[in-house]
Design brief:
alpha/beta, 5 helices, 4 strands
Length: 141
């Protein structure tokens, strides 16, 4: 079962409920794909941040000295799986405009993308990227 801790470190008003609505769907998808076994509880910490913060995180964890849309970190603590997702709201806002959809949709997309990364999905190959995109859309719809 996925549990969400939500922190908005930006001045933009973004309701927690837009992410909470997706947790149940993500949970069912991850159980179906055997990434989660019932009745474990997994804590996901979602942080909405600015460009400076995401740039620091990107440099620290990925070695890239630039902003990005989302960074996911996963770890185990006393056999309890947890993960952190950092979404850069200004980056997401520009990305949403470029892609022609609403900011809230982009934030939800990045949130699910981040959850999938926490549970071991990646997009290093075309096949993996297509699979991750399909799962993201399945959860969003």
């Amino acid at each position: 079962m996925l549990k969400l801790d939500f922190y908005n470190h930006t001045s933009k008003i973004i309701p927690k409920r837009i992410f909470m609505q997706l947790l149940g769907k993500a949970d069912k998808c991850l159980i179906k794909k055997q990434k989660i076994k019932k009745p474990q509880q997994f804590l996901i910490e979602l942080n909405l941040v600015n460009n400076a913060t995401i740039k620091k995180l990107n440099k620290k964890y990925r070695g890239h000295n630039k902003s990005t849309d989302v960074i996911s970190l996963s770890y185990f603590d006393n056999d309890q799986f947890a993960g952190e997702i950092f979404i850069c709201v200004p980056f997401a806002q520009k990305q949403a405009k470029t892609l022609g959809h609403a900011l809230l949709y982009e934030l939800q997309f990045l949130f699910i993308h981040g959850i999938l990364h926490i549970f071991g999905y990646d997009h290093k190959s075309l096949h993996d990227a297509a699979n991750m995109q399909r799962l993201t859309e399945e959860i969003l719809i």
